[in-house]
Structure formats: structure tokens, C-alpha cells
Amino acid sequence: YAADRAADRFIDADARADRDADSLAARALDLRDHRGRRGLAQVVQRDPRALLRQLEDGIVESVTREFESACGPYLANYRDFRLATVELDDLISMDLSPTLCKALASLNAQIHGMCASLPLASLRRIGQRIATAIDDLLYSRLVRRATFSSGGVRQFVRDVGALAALFVSLSAQPHSALRQLHESCQLLVLP
Length: 191
Fold this sequence. Notes:
By secondary structure, the chain is an all-alpha fold. The chain contains twelve helices and no strands. It has helices spanning 2-18, 21-30, 40-46, 48-70, 72-76, 80-83, 88-92, 98-117, 120-143, 150-166, 174-177, 179-189. α8 (98-117) runs parallel beside α10 (150-166).
């Protein structure tokens, strides 16, 4: 997983940033390439926070890009929400949209990998940014374009609920991380 590799690099860089400046300077000399360019340790020594931000940006971009790719069929079938009907059995137990399952499974695996390998502070920052990116993606490419029947509303609310459940480990209030989707669901459910 890309997030696991990025998290490993993040943890290594974080550990290096905690070491004293003399140790980092000595490592910088060893990390120079044959053309004399600066090594990674010099970059970490100069601005460890910039490296941390860069690694977090890479993780967020990787996870959101993978989610968007896996979510393509779900977004392409936005017309299905207009045509969905409500069956009596659907009211009892509604399943997730089949086209969203792959995207949710991928996101779930990425989140579990991040939870296992990232420090809590980074995990919270990254989780919020991923949730915001997914919120913007689904709001702009699905909610704003789709017309919902009552069955479509129920299906969409079920899908958003499953998505929000993935962010429970990253946020105390997962619905606040998916603010636009949560508010859309509240409005769509109104009689």
C-alpha cells in the first residue's frame, strides 16, 4: 500500500528529526550523492516540519486519488439515485451500493494501515484532510448533479453512513468531517 510506504518514510523522518543537530549534520555528509547535492538529513535538519507536511500531503493525495479512482463507477451512475425505488425489504435492511463497495474497502484498508503506523497527531490531521477531500468529491460530483427519488435518498443516506463509519477511528465526530454530505442527507430526508 502506498500509504504504508509513505507512513514508513514519515516515521523514519520523524525519528531523524528528533535526533540532535550534530548527528543529523554527520549523516548529511554521508547522504550526499556523487554530484555533491544535499542529502535528506540536511533537509530534515533545516526544516523537519516542511518534510512532515510534504509526507502528509503525499499520503492524503495517494489515498484520495485511490478512492476517487475506485469510486468512478459510483459517481458515473448518479442517475441511479433518481430511479431507485423503495421496497418493503429495503426499509428493513438496505445494503450498500455495489459500485461503492470497492472504494469503501480500499479506503478502509488505507485507514487501518495509517492507524497502525502513524502517530496520533499526524493521523488526526491526515484523516481530516482525507475526509474533506472525499466530502468535496462526492458533494460536487454526485449530490450537486443527481436527482433523488425517495429510494435514492435512502440509498444515499445508507452509503454516506457507511463512509462516515470509516472515519470513526480518525475523528470523534465523523459526520463533521463529512459536513457537506451530512448536511445534504439531512436536507434530502426532509418530507
